[in-house]
From TrEMBL:
<feature type="domain" description="FHA">
    <location>
        <begin position="70"/>
        <end position="119"/>
    </location>
</feature>
<feature type="transmembrane region" description="Helical">
    <location>
        <begin position="6"/>
        <end position="26"/>
    </location>
</feature>
<keyword id="KW-1133">Transmembrane helix</keyword>
<dbReference type="Pfam" id="PF00498">
    <property type="entry name" value="FHA"/>
</dbReference>
<keyword id="KW-0812">Transmembrane</keyword>
<dbReference type="InterPro" id="IPR000253">
    <property type="entry name" value="FHA_dom"/>
</dbReference>
<dbReference type="InterPro" id="IPR008984">
    <property type="entry name" value="SMAD_FHA_dom_sf"/>
</dbReference>
<keyword id="KW-0472">Membrane</keyword>
<dbReference type="InterPro" id="IPR050923">
    <property type="entry name" value="Cell_Proc_Reg/RNA_Proc"/>
</dbReference>
<protein>
    <submittedName>
        <fullName>FHA domain-containing protein</fullName>
    </submittedName>
</protein>
Length: 142
């Protein structure tokens, strides 16, 4: 008799779980139907490594993702560390402003080249721009 009660309770729990799964699935499908199956496009950007310079951990063709803001430099505390004597401790910052990606020189000693032009202060980045920081060459991708 006791086993019959446990078996009955276990059956009810299993049926409840199945109904919960079905209800959740229908709720998700209904949401997809209302949105016509469209999803917001996630904008992403990053730097493709064209020439790794002195960075032993960098691989040609690798990608450095940019989410909100990154800093590049030689010292700890940067988002992306370049072990290069031509890179300042805190060399550059890349961030989003008004849906544009901006690269800012953080008063580095050797500067930043964007498409072979040395930038003063900051510059907007466009897809395909070539950025040189120290001996490292990066391609901005979006």
């Amino acid at each position: 008799m006791f086993i019959d009660k446990i078996s009955y309770a276990f059956t009810l729990v299993i049926i409840g779980i199945i109904y919960l799964i079905i209800w959740t699935s229908l709720k998700i499908m209904n949401k997809d139907i209302k949105s016509n199956g469209s999803r917001e496009e996630v904008k992403s950007a990053g730097f493709e490594i064209i020439h790794p310079g002195n960075g032993g951990s960098l691989k040609k063709g690798g990608v450095i993702p940019i989410k909100n803001e990154i800093t590049i430099g030689r010292k700890e505390g940067n988002t992306f560390i370049l072990d290069d004597p031509y890179v300042s401790s805190f060399h550059a910052k890349i961030y989003i402003r008004d849906n544009d990606y901006v690269i800012e020189d953080l008063d580095s000693t050797n500067g930043i080249l964007v498409n072979e032009d040395k930038i003063n202060g900051e510059a907007n980045l466009s897809a395909g721009d070539i950025v040189k920081i120290g001996n490292t060459v990066l391609k901005f991708i979006r």
